Amino acid sequence: MKYIVAVIQAHKLDEVLQSLEDRQVNLVTVSNVLGRGRQKGVTEIYRGAKEAGSLLKKVKLEIAVNEDFVDATVDAIVGGARTGEVGDGKIFILDLHEVIRIRTGERGGRAIG
């Protein structure tokens, strides 16, 4: 089992969710987050004065999948989120030690889906 965390541009969320759905990956948690990468934030002009914002609005996806779905999940995220510009985001893949479905008490891969 793997735990996939992706940080993407907020305006690409619908495309990523559709791409995940097309690959039968439906269990997704989405959070609005702030962060920065190589672009180191943005500079905005507010009332004629430049203001450097150090954090950008991003969306974080958290997805637990069985081994068979890792490549499909990563491909879906990359395909839906890529613009080719700086700031497209990152994907982190972590080993998932245990999953427990609270309602039934199922554990492991069966608890994921």
What descriptive keywords fit this protein?
single chain; 113 residues; alpha+beta; Alpha-Beta Plaits; 4-stranded antiparallel beta sheet; two-stranded antiparallel ribbon; elongated
Give a quick rundown of the structure:
The chain is of the alpha+beta class. It has one domain: Alpha-Beta Plaits.
Biggest sheet architecture:
4 strands, antiparallel
Beta-strand segment tally = 6
Uncertain residue ranges: none
As for the CATH topology, it is Alpha-Beta Plaits
| Helical residue percent band | 10-25%
The computed structural class is alpha+beta
Domain count: the total is: 1
Mean pLDDT: 90
Assembly of the depicted chains: single chain
What Rg is obtained from the alpha carbons, in whole angstroms?
17 Å
Walkthrough of the structure:
Helix content is 23%, strand content 37%. The protein has 113 residues and is of the alpha+beta class. The strands form 2 sheets. It has a 4-stranded antiparallel β-sheet, covered by helices on one side. The chain has a two-stranded antiparallel sheet with strand order 3-4.
